Amino acid sequence: MENSLGPFPQHVQQVQSDAAQNYTIFYSISGPGVDKEPFNLFFIDKDTGDIFCTRSIDREQYEQFPLYAYATTADGYAPEYPLPLLFRVEDDNDNAPYFENKVTVFSVPENCRTGTSVGQVTAVDLDEPDTLHTRLKYKILQQIPDHPKHFSIHPDTGVITTTTPLLDREHCDTYKLVMEVRDMGGQPFGLFNTGTITISLEDENDNPPYFTETSYFTEVEENRIDVEILRMAVHDQDLPNTPHSKAVYKILQGNENGNFKISTDPNTNEAVLCVVKPLNYEVNHQVVLQIGVLNEAQFTKAANSKTPTMCTTTVTVKIKDSDEGPECQPPVKVIQSRDGLQPGLELQGYKALDPETRSGEGLRYKKIGDEDNWFEINEHTGDLRTIKVLDRESKFVKNDQYNVSVVAMDTDGRSCTGTLVVLLEDYNDHPPQIDKEVTICQHAKDYAVLEPVDADGPENGPPFQFFLDNSANKLWNLETKNGKTAILRQRQILDYNEYNVPITIKDRHGLNARHMLMVRVCDCTTPSDCKMNSKNVRDVKPNVILGRWAILAMVLGSALLLCILFTCFCVTAKRTVKKCFPDVAQQNLIVSNTEGPGEEVMEANIRLPTQTSNICDTSMSVGTLGGQGVKTQQSFEMVKGGYTLDSSKGGGHQTLESVKGAGQGVMEPGRYTYTDWHSFTQPRLGEKVYLCGQDEEHKRSEDYVRSYNYEGKGSMAGSVGCCSDRQEEEGLEFLDHLEPKFRTLAKTCVKK
């Protein structure tokens, strides 16, 4: 038990060993409170195992003591394992709760609603947690000032809230609360402590500013500007130097002409009234202003009160008279005059007044601005007299207006300046004008657009009328578009040249002008590409003279063209194709199982017999009969004993044996001399070449000798191209009578 009163040593526990029945056992302990801090708090009787406590214990310093007990024999043998012992200190309510913060300050807005949370206070109790010793209750003992009661506290959580909406910072800006916290659930016998917290009220803009006086009076001399004439102070109960109290002033009435300006002095918060535009005593002797004041921040409606309104005051400004110079009012005066007014005529001039007498007597006038020197001015009256013709189209006239600046002076040398604007009424004195030259590009369009310009005003300008002279109607047509433009179009395609076209143009009132328009018809895409020389010639074709170099170039070009045509003719007529036949010793077909791709059949692949070298210059070559030959309705047929030529044109069936004749000696079947081949194929190949040249549609071009893949080395047979590309319509019945060794070849030749 914490804070035990004894007597000490106080028995707390006893340990026993079962080995004591067989051995003499001695007991000992170790751990905190024995041989560690705090030392000698516990000890054990070595014979009985009784454990004693020697003094009182503070639980807040030592909550528990983990010890170990040992049982040993006299010779040091330990029949038991060490026994862990845990001593807990029972709590005693010996610590009063206390507030964590010595100084606690909360803040809350003034005029806040009932139930607004102000803050939460917390206290600490060092006794054992979650026991009755640390169950705390909070209470407000006192509020300073104590009336009315504005705050309450939750007894368990310590949250402080408002109880009324009547917190007014301007009445009291700080409250102090004396708080109590008690343990044992707030029971009277519980321990307690007290503390003080401070609650500050935050300012709201619930008080409008107001002037210290209900009206003000001041005076100022006329024609004075940028001068301060009055300062006005205001009072505001809200917190100083914040947007809730800083003033914003406005002139509500009396400043329609913008003569006054009001501002706020940032240091004193006063209103500063200034004159920024001259006042005229002759117009008003005094001005009455109504001025209002607000805060920078928006007004906040206080509880049980109305929304604050703007405070206003009246300022009377007396204007003091002063002797002043002439007055030029208005600064700009407009007079009208007719365009083209002749010299020597008078116009009404600018008039100034003396504000004291409201007349212009005694004033002198002088002209200080007249760009083109159109006028002279009467020194006494200010009237103008023309010395030049007034021209509305002058470059010095802007928007039909010509400006003259005049200065008026009194006898004391004081002056004012005014501007006289002469507004010129347009007079129709300028006919429409157009460009003197236009260009028609034949590749882009066959017409030109005419856009006249009239220096007069719109009342004397378009719509325009366009007319062509009779002499130009044969070649040209003129169309009017929307009264402002016209289209000049060719009646026919004209030569590239320059043409003079007379055109007359009238404005809306009939003022006209005749123009000689030069039209340039050019071979171009844009007018800037036209490079023609200017000539006043019409319908005349230019002379073209060729130089000797041009003639030489034409001759050489013609000769070159003839050479090209002649070369093409020779190549076509004399194209030769070589036809070389293989050795007659290799004319027999042999069985070959080699079907792999071979060499392309070309002249370099063919082994020519030595005795037939002069025959290779015939008009046919292996694989390309004449290059452009045409196939005839003939086909080669190979049978045992010779080659057969079957002609579809005739009914005869000729073979090499029949051509050899009966007088020839008997040769080995399948072998013939070169003479036999030559006499058999030469006339027929010649006929094919002739037919190829005669047939323009090249229907016989399919009869060319074709190239085939290489069919193995060592074959005694030559090419079989002559019988491998037969058409379906050519009748292949002869293949049905071939010997067995040729059946495979026959199947290859027949197209499925």
TrEMBL record:
<keyword id="KW-0812">Transmembrane</keyword>
<dbReference type="GO" id="GO:0007156">
    <property type="term" value="P:homophilic cell adhesion via plasma membrane adhesion molecules"/>
</dbReference>
<protein>
    <submittedName>
        <fullName>Desmocollin-1 isoform X1</fullName>
    </submittedName>
</protein>
<keyword id="KW-0965">Cell junction</keyword>
<keyword id="KW-0732">Signal</keyword>
<comment type="function">
    <text>A component of desmosome cell-cell junctions which are required for positive regulation of cellular adhesion. Involved in the interaction of plaque proteins and intermediate filaments mediating cell-cell adhesion.</text>
</comment>
<dbReference type="GO" id="GO:0005886">
    <property type="term" value="C:plasma membrane"/>
</dbReference>
<keyword id="KW-0677">Repeat</keyword>
<feature type="transmembrane region" description="Helical">
    <location>
        <begin position="549"/>
        <end position="571"/>
    </location>
</feature>
<feature type="domain" description="Cadherin">
    <location>
        <begin position="100"/>
        <end position="211"/>
    </location>
</feature>
<feature type="domain" description="Cadherin">
    <location>
        <begin position="329"/>
        <end position="434"/>
    </location>
</feature>
<feature type="domain" description="Cadherin">
    <location>
        <begin position="212"/>
        <end position="333"/>
    </location>
</feature>
<feature type="domain" description="Cadherin">
    <location>
        <begin position="1"/>
        <end position="99"/>
    </location>
</feature>
<keyword id="KW-0165">Cleavage on pair of basic residues</keyword>
<keyword id="KW-0472">Membrane</keyword>
<keyword id="KW-0130">Cell adhesion</keyword>
<keyword id="KW-1003">Cell membrane</keyword>
<dbReference type="GO" id="GO:0005509">
    <property type="term" value="F:calcium ion binding"/>
</dbReference>
<keyword id="KW-1133">Transmembrane helix</keyword>
<keyword id="KW-0106">Calcium</keyword>
<keyword id="KW-0325">Glycoprotein</keyword>
<feature type="domain" description="Cadherin">
    <location>
        <begin position="432"/>
        <end position="544"/>
    </location>
</feature>
<dbReference type="GO" id="GO:0030057">
    <property type="term" value="C:desmosome"/>
</dbReference>
